[in-house]
Amino acid sequence: MNILSAIIWDASPDIFSFEIPFIGSTLTIRWYGLLFASGFLVGQYIMLKIFKAEGKPEKDIDAMTLYMIVSTLVGARLGHCLFYQPDFYLANPIEILKVWEGGLASHGATIGILFGLYLYSRSRPDQSYLWVLDRIVIVVALGGAFIRLGNLFNSEIVGLPTDLPWGFVFVKLGEDFARHPAQLYEAISCVFLFLFLLWMWSRTKEKTPEGRLFGLFVVILFSLRIFYEFLKENQVDFENGLPLNMGQILSIPMVFIGLWILIRSTKNKVENKPLPN
Asked: EC number(s) of the enzyme (predicted)?
C-alpha cells in the first residue's frame, strides 16, 4: 500500500510537562485528560441552559455534575477491568486503582452513570429518573465525541488496516500502514447524535415524553457501536475467538433496552404545566 495516500498521524498524547517546585517530580498534561475534563465543563454549561429553560433549580447542576464525574470514572474503570481483563484485575485488585495507566470502558461508564443519576434523582421529586436521563444523554453524546478524540491523540482503539485515502498511519504504534480512524468515526457520529438530540429536545422541552430521548440515544449509539466494532481491532486477545467482540456483545442488550424504553415512551404523556416565572 502507498502510505503517501494516507494521513500520517504522529500527534503527541502530551500537551506539555513541567517540574513541580520543591517536589522534584514532573507533571504532564495530556490531551486525553484535557478533552475528558472539557466534556464535563461543556456539558455542565449546556445542562445549565436546559435547566433554566425548563424552570429547574440551577443550583442542582453542581450536584449532578459531581454525580456524573464520580459515576463515569468508577463505572468506566470497573467496566474495563471486569469486562476485558477480569482474571488479571481480580488477582491484582490494587491495579484497579491505577486509572492513570489507562483502561476505561464506555459500557461500564453507561452502567455507572445510570446508577449515579438514579441516586441523584431520588432526592429530587421534581426531576424523575427518566426526566434526568432524557436531558443528560444530550451532553453525554457530546462528551463521547471529546473522549474519542482523546483516544485518537493516544493512538488507541485503532481501526483495522485500510487502503482508503482517509486512513491514518499511527506512527506512535511503529506502523507504516494505514488504519481506519475508528476513533474519528465515532467522534463525528457522537457530534451528530448530540445535535439530533438537542434538536429533539428544543422542539418539546418540558413536554418531551419521558424516555423518548434516552431511548433514542441508547438505540442509535449502541447500534453504531456494533457496526463500528467491525472496523476496529479487538482490544484483548480472548476476543479473537469470539463471533462478536466484547463491545458488540455488551451493546446488543443495550439496543433492546433502548427499544423497550422508546416504545414505552409513546405511552407517556406529559401534563401541560406552565413554567414558573
From this structure: 2.5.1.145
Question: Can you read off the three cell numbers belonging to residue 114?
Answer: 445510570
Examine residue 231 and state whether it is found in any structural domain, yes or no: yes
Got the DSSP string for 118-129? HHHHHT-TTS-H
Residue 4 lies in a domain: no
Position 188 in a domain:
yes
The C-alpha atoms of residue 125 and residue 147 are separated, in whole angstroms, by: 32
Per residue in 136-164, pLDDT tens?
999 999 999 999 999 999 999 899 999 99
**What is the domain extent for residue 170?**
30-235+243-265
The separation between CA 191 and the C-alpha centre of its own chain, rounded to angstroms, equals 11
Residue 118 neighbours by CB under 8 Å, 6+ apart = 129
What is the distance between the alpha carbons of residues 75 and 107, in angstroms, rounded to a whole number? 8
A 10 A CB-CB count for 126 gives 11
Cβ atoms of 246 and 235 closer than 8 Å: yes
Q: Is residue 21 part of a domain?
A: no
- Alpha-carbon distance of 217 to 223, in angstroms, equals 10
104 vs 149: CA distance, rounded Å: 14
Domain count, the chain: 1
148 is annotated as contributing to ligand binding: yes
Please tell me the number of Cα atoms within 13 Å of 275 on its side-chain side.
13
Interval 29-63: pLDDT, tens: 889 889 989 999 999 999 999 999 999 998 999 99
Find the Cα–Cα–Cα–Cα dihedral 195, 196, 199, 204, rounded to 10°: -140
The region of weakest confidence among 54-68, 95-109, 162-176 is: 95-109
Please state the pTM of the whole predicted model: 0.85
Q: Does 24 have pLDDT greater than 70?
A: no
